[in-house]
Structure formats: C-alpha cells, structure tokens
C-alpha cells in the first residue's frame, strides 16, 4: 500500500472538511455542465470520449471510493463498469456523487480502509482525491459545453499541483521518464504566504518530487496556481503561464507522457 498511516485531518494546507465542501460543489457543476452539453458531445481534453463516457467514468470512481469509505474495504478492488441507460445517466451520476459526499461526511476520523497515496489518514486521502478527481472532470464537462472552466481557488489549485507531483507522478507506474537525469521546477507565484515550488527529478526510474528544494533546474515552469493546475493536469494551455524557461523539451515530454484521465 502506498500510504502514510499517520492519523489526522489535514492534507497539505487544507482540512478534510474543505475538500468535502469542494467535492460537493464541483460534482454539482459537473452534472449541470454535462446535462447542458448533452451525452453525445465530445470531451476535448479526453480524446475519444463523449459526455456519457465522462459521466460513466466519474460516477464509477465515486461508487468505487464510496465502497472504501462507507464499508472500510481493505483491499483494492476493480471499478464496476455498470451504468444505466442514457435517459438516467445524469441523475445516476448525481446520485453516486451525493452518496460519496454523504459517506465522507459520516465517516469517523479514525476510518480504516485501503488508499493509495501518502496522506495523514484514509479519510483525508479520499476526501482530497475525490475533490480533485471531480474538479478535473468538471473542467472536462465544461469543455464539452464549449466554455472556459469555472475558477479554481488558489489554495485548492496549489494542493492539486502538489498531489500530482508528489503523488501520482511519483508512482512506479508513472510514464514520465528520461534517458539521463533531468530536473523540472514548478513554481506557483500567487499562493498566500509566498510562492510554492516543487522540484521534479526525472530519470529512467519513477520521478521523485521535493517541495521547496533549492538548486538549479533544467526547466522551470512558472505561473499562477490555477494556471499550473490546468496545464499540468493537461486541461489548459501552457501559453497562459507566466514563463517557461530552460529546456522546454521537458514540457513537451510532460504533455506526451503525464496525462491522467
């Protein structure tokens, strides 16, 4: 299990309750955008997907997560791909989202269950992970609707960059590899209390990330937390960032290999 079994509520600079509130709001926005776009609308950030695929995927993930939180499941289980027919799909998604949110609210602080990224507790992990899962796919649904994404709060966006760099991209399955050691620095300039930075070390092995590490980097990507959140999750243009300096081939490598659905 890739986890930190310490107890506690705080993940990064946010409390578990804040993640649950964000999850609640983002799921409503996702369902509203999906309903407005229509089930046949393509989802530009996810080539080959239609809105029905987006709802089926996100609803299945919600249902999967709810099983761990509500039932304390201790082993990784596969996603259940079963979804209702089109006329019921949006309402079905709303139901899976509501049940997940209710399960997180009702869960005890000392919840014990399986989880897969380092976190202060299983409850903190699932609240954080599902808040970002839902936000990213809300952005996808709004893209299907043909509009710019609704704003992402600065602190939450910085946390999503942190989860991506120190969590997802640090897993053994990460495809972000280089044939010789390289470094990529990510710098969010607008986080209250000062800029936040991450140094990603790339090689033929799984990447490693350090928060606020000193030293030079082969490439530095600088921008607001929200713009970095969109760009690094491959949901927004790098042109909106403040600067990309150094070897921009590392940015292209990221675009090709670091996409997460």
Jot down its keywords.
261 residues, alpha+beta, Four Helix Bundle (Hemerythrin (Met), subunit A), Nonspecific Lipid-transfer Protein, Chain A, 2 domains, 5-stranded mixed beta sheet, two-stranded antiparallel ribbon, 7 helices, 45% helix, disordered N terminus
Report on this model:
Helices cover 45% and strands 12% of the residues. By secondary structure, the chain is an alpha+beta fold. It has two domains: 136 residues, dinb family like domain (Four Helix Bundle (Hemerythrin (Met), subunit A)); 104 residues, SCP2 sterol-binding domain (Nonspecific Lipid-transfer Protein, Chain A, 2-Layer Sandwich). A five-stranded mixed β-sheet has the order 5-4-3-6-7. A two-stranded antiparallel sheet has the order 1-2. β4 and β5 form a beta hairpin. α1 runs parallel beside α4, α2 packs parallel to α3 and α2 packs antiparallel against α4. The longest helix is centred in the middle third of the chain and has 24 residues. It is globular. The two termini are 22 Å apart.
């Amino acid at each position: 299990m890739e986890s930190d079994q310490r107890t506690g509520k705080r993940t990064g600079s946010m409390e578990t309750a804040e993640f649950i509130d964000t999850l609640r709001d983002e799921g409503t926005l996702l369902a509203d955008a999906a309903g407005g776009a229509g089930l046949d609308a393509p989802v530009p950030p996810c080539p080959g997907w239609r809105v029905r695929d987006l709802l089926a995927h996100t609803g299945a993930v919600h249902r999967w997560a709810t099983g761990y939180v509500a039932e304390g499941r201790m082993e990784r289980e596969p996603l259940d791909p079963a979804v209702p027919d089109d006329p019921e799909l949006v309402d079905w998604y709303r139901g899976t989202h509501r049940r997940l949110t209710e399960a997180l609210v009702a869960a005890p602080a000392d919840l014990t269950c399986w989880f897969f990224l380092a976190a202060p507790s299983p409850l903190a992990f699932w609240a954080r992970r599902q808040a970002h899962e839902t936000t990213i796919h809300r952005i996808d649904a709004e893209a299907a609707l043909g509009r710019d994404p609704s704003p992402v709060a600065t602190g939450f966006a910085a946390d999503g960059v942190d989860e991506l760099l120190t969590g997802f991209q640090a897993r053994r399955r990460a495809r972000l590899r280089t044939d010789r050691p390289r470094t990529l620095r990510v710098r969010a300039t607008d986080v209250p209390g000062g800029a936040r930075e991450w140094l990603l070390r790339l090689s033929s092995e799984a990447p490693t990330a350090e928060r606020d590490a000193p030293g030079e980097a082969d490439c530095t990507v600088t921008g607001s937390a929200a713009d970095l959140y969109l760009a690094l999750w491959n949901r927004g243009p790098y042109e909106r960032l403040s600067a990309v300096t150094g070897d921009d081939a590392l940015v292209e490598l990221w675009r090709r290999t670091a996409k997460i659905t």
